[in-house]
Specification:
Radius of gyration: 20 Å
Order of helices and strands: HHEEHEHEHEHEHEHHHEHEEHEHEH
Distance between the termini: 31 Å
Oligomer: single chain
Number of strands: 12
Largest sheet: 5 strands, parallel
Strand order of the largest sheet: 4-3-5-6-7
Bound molecules: 5-amino-5-deoxy-1-O-phosphono-D-mannitol
Strand content: 15-25%
Length: about 375
């Protein structure tokens, strides 16, 4: 049942405010504005961890990459991260007192499961963030942390991703507290920001007709680049993955600072460049990369907030405005414009959005 939407993907994009709220409700106390971990072992493991190893595949891997920024910045917990198909075969060096975290919507992804088993065999405490509670990964992990996205039918992951972020953020705050790097006032501020995310997404989705129009523009391109920096760099990767898997347009995500080390050679007026740049501490840096693109004739679609759009100048080709919020939650908010843009590009191209060619919802072979 698509609840009146044309595709499951559209339905699942629109479900995000609700399922994010459900997931946050599990991990946050809304009155105290603190994180509650229902697992006593977890705080201890995170407090004592020498390092956190994170692994997953596809979109879940990009959620993990956002997690890396959060765990390192907030909890000063060193993070090692790799896609599961690499991690499991490269004989990673697991530390003593190591914690390993696996992220999976289905809980059945073969490489992620194999990476988890490898870490377990090497004495790591294993945690899994999983959407299907009775799945193999949820059962085999020492500690399973649920997401509450509900069934995700569209092959392109949307609500599972933002729910993974909604579990990762509280976990990073908990790790920060357990490791003595967070005072109560900061925890309250970050929890308030998280609890505000669903409302901001509802607000953003009111401009869908504009995104539909822009999706039609993106659909004309053969190649698209996505740029982001810091915690929003994984969003550039996720945006590119979403676009290629459902619209079949070639897309690449890059760290904005890497442009001048190669990819800028691709820029001409035929390659739209989607820049993800909230008006945060890294904004100026990303905007200077964006200006390098525009100086070479590149057509920029800037996804930012009111202040960021105002400061960007008139040369920008198109803008997408995301509600202003604490920079901590920007990965949650900026996921939605990249999903909707890819969705409408695919709709404009007339592809099979929910069942893209060559792809399966759950990859249970290696
Ligand atoms: O079920 P999982 O989260 O383990 O799946 C991981 C990837 O296969 C999945 O995220 C895939 O990349 C999606 N099609 C992305 O939209």
């Amino acid at each position: 049942d698509k609840a009146g939407h044309r595709h499951y993907m559209a339905k699942e994009i629109h479900e995000q405010p609700e399922v994010i709220a459900h997931t946050l409700a599990h991990y946050l106390d809304p009155d105290a504005r603190t994180v509650r971990l229902n697992e006593p072992r977890l705080a201890k493991a995170l407090a004592e961890a020498m390092r956190l190893t994170i692994s997953a595949c596809g979109t879940a891997y990009y959620a993990g990459l956002v997690g890396k920024y959060w765990f390192e910045q907030l909890a000063r917990l060193p993070v090692e991260i790799d896609v599961a198909s690499e991690l499991r075969y490269r004989q990673p060096v697991y530390p003593e007192n190591g914690v390993a975290l696996y992220i999976s919507q289905s809980g059945e992804t073969a490489d992620t499961l194999a990476a988890l088993r490898d870490a377990k065999a090497h004495g790591q405490v294993t945690i899994a963030i999983v959407n299907v509670p009775e799945s193999t990964i949820a059962r085999e992990a020492d500690i399973a942390l649920p997401t509450f996205a509900g069934p995700e039918i569209g092959v392109a992951s949307t609500k599972a991703f933002t729910c993974q972020l909604s579990a990762l953020a509280p976990l990073a705050i908990a790790a920060a507290r357990a490791r003595g790097h967070m005072d109560l006032a900061t925890e309250n501020k970050l929890c308030s920001a998280l609890l505000g995310a669903p409302r901001h997404i509802v607000e953003f989705l009111k401009q869908e007709s504009r995104i539909e129009h822009l999706g039609g523009e993106v659909a004309k391109a053969r190649d698209v680049l996505y740029l982001g920096r810091g915690v929003n760099y994984p969003l550039a990767l996720e945006g590119a993955l979403k676009l290629k898997e459902i619209s079949y347009i070639h897309a690449e995500g890059y760290a904005a600072g890497e442009m001048k080390h190669g990819p800028i050679a691709l820029i001409d007026e035929k390659v739209p460049v989607i820049v993800i740049a909230p008006h945060d501490a890294l904004y100026e840096k990303t905007v200077s990369n964006m200006q390098e693109v525009m100086a070479r004739g590149g057509k920029v679609i800037l996804i930012s907030d009111k202040a960021g759009i105002a400061a960007a100048g008139a040369q920008v080709w198109q803008t997408v405005e995301v509600p202003e919020a604490d920079p901590f939650i920007s990965p949650l908010l900026y996921a939605v414009p990249v999903q909707t843009l890819a969705y409408y590009a695919a709709v404009a191209k007339g592809t099979d959005v929910d069942q893209p060619r060559n792809l399966a919802k759950s990859v249970t072979v290696e």
